[in-house]
């Protein structure tokens, strides 16, 4: 497995994003919330992913962009935790909910915790 986050792995379709927010399931691990939905897509990688930081919680665009950049990096390094043992295709959206920027280690811990919650829920539903 390559530790990259290429163009084909990014969630960009407006229709898919709207469907994700309307029908998706949510998991929380402060400060990150994961919305996921089982959806067939063209990518060879089983997950398409997006990242967002609400303007309401982080006012300055500079800080929002940095948080998104760090979240993408944490996901890129740990995406094998999500994609191993997946047979279906999914779309993900990670939402940052804290008011201030947290350290890299805290975000990494939170994403790892969400990955275990996600896999447990998927295994339980199958």
From TrEMBL:
Taxonomy, superkingdom: Bacteria
Keyword field contains Ribonucleoprotein: no
Keywords annotated in UniProt: Endonuclease, Hydrolase, Nuclease, RNA-binding, tRNA processing
GO aspect biological process, one term: tRNA 5'-leader removal
PROSITE patterns in UniProt: RIBONUCLEASE_P
SUPFAM superfamilies reported in the protein's UniProt record: Ribosomal protein S5 domain 2-like (SSF54211)
Top-level EC class as recorded in UniProt: hydrolase
GO CC annotation: ribonuclease P complex
GO molecular function, one term: ribonuclease P activity
EC id: 3.1.26.5
Substrates-to-products reaction catalysed: Endonucleolytic cleavage of RNA, removing 5'-extranucleotides from tRNA precursor
Signal sequence annotation: none
InterPro entries xrefs: Ribosomal_Su5_D2-typ_SF (IPR020568), Ribsml_uS5_D2-typ_fold_subgr (IPR014721), RNase_P (IPR000100), RNase_P_CS (IPR020539)
Family to which this protein belongs: Belongs to the RnpA family.
Function according to Swiss-Prot or TrEMBL: RNaseP catalyzes the removal of the 5'-leader sequence from pre-tRNA to produce the mature 5'-terminus. It can also cleave other RNA substrates such as 4.5S RNA. The protein component plays an auxiliary but essential role in vivo by binding to the 5'-leader sequence and broadening the substrate specificity of the ribozyme.
Annotated PANTHER family: RIBONUCLEASE P PROTEIN COMPONENT
Subunit field text: Consists of a catalytic RNA component (M1 or rnpB) and a protein subunit.
Protein name: Ribonuclease P protein component
Lineage: Bacteria, Pseudomonadati, Bacteroidota, Flavobacteriia, Flavobacteriales
